[in-house]
Amino acid sequence: MEPVLKLKDICKEYRRGGAPFFAVDHASLEVEPGGYVNIIGRSGSGKSTLLNIAAGMLPPTSGVAELGGVSLTGKDDAELSRIRNDGIGFIPQGVSALPALTVLENVMLPFCLYPHDGDGEGYARLLLDRFGVADLADAWPGELSGGELRRVLIARALINRPQIVIADEPTSDLDVRSTRDVMEAFAKLNADGTTLLIVSHDLDALKYGKRVYTMSEGRLAEGNRLAL
Ligand SMILES: Nc1ncnc2c1ncn2[C@@H]1O[C@H](COP(=O)(O)OP(=O)(O)OP(=O)(O)O)[C@@H](O)[C@H]1O
């Protein structure tokens, strides 16, 4: 079966103090349809850099990233934005809701950026309901708890029925209870067939995934190498 996401020999080179180094060093990864892949690793190991490349937000120095067989590299900005908007539900690190839009408007934003068929508002309300935050549709992001806001961002990531949901440390700023709510929301999504790629610091997150990779100094290896 064709992987949803394919990263082939990805490198990202930066410079520090004039000297080049690889933030991502020849990383390869395939996420199969319905897969749930966790990437773990210490701070600074290159997880966010790799995830941003996988989400089409950052071009690699070399290597190829493909979504559903379509290369994300070598596309112009307009084409890449459209692929990202429709094909990838990206949940970046930190809070990324727009404060001047209501919760419902935030969820509908990717639907409204380009013409789409169907009932965007109806689907947005259904997603909010699915994650237990339907009653917050008319609230402002600033009025929500961290866990509620994170579930709103998951709803936003799903509004265009993407091929994959990619999340960077989705629970890093949450307490134990909210972390569990968010991880259970992801588990439910995956059980319903959504393909997931999630970066986490938290080894507890691993019990919700199907495969794990460890990032260390830019290199990606299958398995939990932190426990060794
Ligand atoms: N734009 C940049 N320019 C130069 N170096 C960078 C840049 N972005 C990241 N780096 C460096 O690349 C390395 C990997 O960073 P990255 O943010 O991918 O790590 P991470 O594993 O996600 O860390 P954390 O868990 O703390 O978020 C780090 O050494 C970081 O300082």
UniProtKB/TrEMBL annotation:
GO cellular component labels: plasma membrane
Residue span(s) of domain ABC transporter: 5-228
InterPro entries attached to this UniProt entry: AAA+_ATPase, ABC_transporter-like_ATP-bd, ABC_transporter-like_CS, ABC_transpr_LolD-like, MacB-like_ATP-bd, P-loop_NTPase
Keyword ATP-binding part of the UniProt annotation: yes
Record key words, sorted: ATP-binding, Nucleotide-binding, Transport
This protein's record includes keyword Translocase: no
Classification via SUPFAM superfamilies: P-loop containing nucleoside triphosphate hydrolases
One of the record's GO molecular function terms: ATP binding
PANTHER family: ABC TRANSPORTER ATP-BINDING PROTEIN, IMPORT ATP-BINDING PROTEIN
Protein name: ABC transporter ATP-binding protein
The organism's taxonomic lineage, starting at the top: Bacteria, Thermotogati, Synergistota, Synergistia, Synergistales
